[in-house]
Design goal:
By secondary structure, the chain is of the alpha/beta class. It has one domain: Dehydroquinase, class II (Rossmann fold, 3-Layer(aba) Sandwich), CATH 3.40.50. The protein is built from 5 helices and 5 strands; from the N terminus they run βααβαβαββα. Strands 2-1-3-4-5 form a 5-stranded parallel β-sheet, with helices on both faces. The chain binds ligand CA2.
Length: about 140
């Protein structure tokens, strides 16, 4: 059974509760249940934190055991050298996901400390990006 970790960064615990125009109206816990139903043969885990160091620790923990990480580092994408370094240091493939199309937004969202170290990036496809990322990690 493949093992894939989903890691979400700061403020994504507010999904479905605020700014539905940008981030949709589904909360991640509900979406995670539908992902588990969609992939019954994958051992999926989900971790969210608003704390940068906790995200680094989660990346390290999932990074040497399992088949991949799907990460949305949220605002830390654009600021965190530590998260970029953690992704560069681990063994498993990483797919970077953004719910919104960061390329169509403010210029500070154009910089990612993660993209160059990730297997690939999905942006702008809403929550479906997580499903597509999991499919990639299963099939690669
Ligand atoms: O589009 C994405 O997935 C982002 O990673 C989301 C981040 C943003 O800083 C990135 O530039 C793009 C923000 C996450 C905040 O999530 C919220 C969800 C609901 C209400 C308020 C914030």
């Amino acid at each position: 059974m493949k093992k894939i970790a989903i890691i979400n960064g700061p403020n994504l615990n507010l999904l479905g509760k605020r700014e539905p125009g940008i981030y949709g109206s589904t909360d991640f816990e509900t979406y995670f249940e539908s992902l588990k139903a969609l992939f019954p043969n994958v051992r999926l885990s989900y971790f969210q934190s608003n704390v940068e160091g906790e995200l680094v620790t989660a990346i390290q923990q999932a990074g040497f055991d399992g088949d991949g990480i799907v990460i949305n580092p949220a605002a830390y994408t654009h600021t965190s050298v530590a998260i970029g370094d953690a992704i560069a240091a681990i063994k498993v493939p990483v797919v970077e996901v953004h719910i919104s199309n960061v390329h169509a937004r403010e210029s500070f969202r154009q910089l990612s400390h993660v993209s160059a170290k990730a297997a690939g990036t999905i942006a702008g496809l809403g929550l479906q990006g997580y499903e597509l990322a999991i499919r990639y990690l299963i099939n690669r």
